[in-house]
Amino acid sequence: MNSRLQGLGPSATQHVMMAAQALDAGRADEADRQLERVLTAYPDHPEVLRMKAGILSLRGQHHDAVRLMQRALVHRPNDALYHNTLGSLFGNAGDYEGAIVALRRTCELDPRLAMAWYNLGVMLTKSVRNDEAAEALQRAVALAPDHIGARALLADLLRTRGDVDAAATEYRRLLAARPTFGLAWWGLADLRTRRFDAADIASMQSALKRADATEQDRITMGFALAKALDDEGDYARALDALAQANAIARRYQAWDAPRFSTGIGSISDAFEPPPTGSAKPQGSEVIFIVSLPRSGSTLVEQILASHSSVEGAGELPDLPRVLAEETQRLGGKPIPQWAREATPDDWQRLGQRYLDRTARWRSERPVFTDKLPNNWIYIGAIRAMLPGARVVVVRRDPLETCFSCYRQPLDASNGYSRSFGDLASFWRDFDRSVARSAALHPGHVREHSYEAMVADPETQIRELLAFCGLPFEEACVNFHQNQRVVRSPSATQVRQPMRSDTARSQRYGALLNPLRAALGLPDSPG
């Protein structure tokens, strides 16, 4: 650290060090106050730029943070830590490919930096490159056997492969080493195959009060505690635990609901009427599955991936990246502007770029699924880029969907899930947008009801396969026997037969009336 502070005066050095401490604690405003005077006096100092980039990222200004960090790297091109920071900032911006490149460079510059191998493993996991992720994480653990973050993510990978017992054993080992480790508590909760006992509940309650628990620990422990209390039928205390966990998360996951709604409306408007898209009928190789989180999209993918012609690829980052690349190529012009100006050749080029990026998912089967939930925002672009693609919109009861999101520690890109008001606003944006897309593209966009699937599985599965142009196969009805890797919170459930008792909101009765009110639904009397 000291070598990176060379060129700063004593007072500036002190302020930068205090800003770094505030950043580590997630306190963006305090870090900014410490850095304000230093930035004026040393506007081009690389360490000052690195600190400012971290502040911008914490505030959700991810692309500005990346640009600032790239400026800092001009001054320190061979500093492994700087490349590591850039990789993390790319990841926060959703550019996992850029993050992987930066982090691989970090590992080249300093192969013994366990943190870099861990961060690389995280980004490879987000890119659904699980085998490569496991290798990077194992390197991190070999260098730092007590790196509990890497060990926790390796346990998560065990869960995705269906090895629940091994995952549970590793989570317990992590908790024995660090009782406040929230990710391990949530990992156990998310296995969903066994309940916490009274001793576990007491341990979590005690750990929440410990001074060495980080804010992130308190968030994930709070969700795990809520799951335990829910299993006990103590719904009032479960809801209280959720409220506390979500309140902490909101401090780090800023969400501007009006701004988001305006943006969604602009994108929808840009694709009505639909533009003249690619003249080449490309895209029949892909089935997009879009939804809000916790709506049953993993179940739909598991059913389709049980077909002999379909590869279940999971939540791929490729479509948003292709669109972001086009925005960058056009000097930052937003999608609603350039979509109206794009030619059929442009749409064909973008569609081919997507197919090139996803080619590995067609190496063994001719069709693959892309299950990134928020791709519902881009249905109009999908239809223009990939006229042969099919889009399955998975819908679930809005109260169940929103409450299920509220009960899940979703990542920072899902900041709307931390309050009832933001959840309701996000639901309405989704509802309007997908209804509009389905009306504009009949025969290419299917609205698929989770409740209808649970009530009459075989009929719905047959209709789903027919929409996707696939012949019926019995394996799709027996989807729970498929042992493919599933990386989503529903990984355990989709390896079990379909159940009809998954609804949660009715158990909470009037406790959820504030959420009902936000959604415009009638109150529950009790």
Describe, in plain words, how this protein is organized in 3D:
It is built from 27 helices and five strands. It is mainly alpha-helical. It has a five-stranded parallel sheet with strand order 2-3-1-4-5, with helices on both faces.
- Which percent range fits the helix content? 55-70%
Q: How would you sum up the major sheet?
A: 5 strands, parallel
Shape: globular
- Helix tally? 27
Helix/sheet category: mainly alpha
> What percentage of amino acids are in beta strands?
under 5%
Q: Which strand order does the major sheet show?
A: 2-3-1-4-5
Distance between the first and last residues' Cα: 58 Å
Concise overview:
The chain has 526 residues and is mainly α.
Question: What layout of secondary structure does this protein have?
Answer:
Layout: H1 10-24, H2 28-41, H3 46-58, H4 62-75, H5 80-92, H6 96-109, H7 114-126, H8 130-143, H9 148-160, H10 164-177, H11 182-191, H12 198-208, H13 215-231, H14 235-250, H15 257-270, E1 286-291, H16 297-305, E2 310-312, H17 318-329, H18 335-341, H19 344-357, E3 367-370, H20 379-385, E4 390-395, H21 398-406, H22 420-440, E5 445-449, H23 450-455, H24 457-467, H25 474-477, H26 505-508, H27 513-519
Parallel strand pairs: 1-3, 1-4, 2-3, 4-5
Helix pairs in contact: 1-2, 1-3, 2-3, 3-4, 3-5, 4-5, 5-6, 5-7, 6-7, 7-8, 8-9, 9-10, 9-11, 10-11, 11-13, 12-13, 13-14, 15-18, 15-22, 17-19, 19-20, 21-22, 22-27
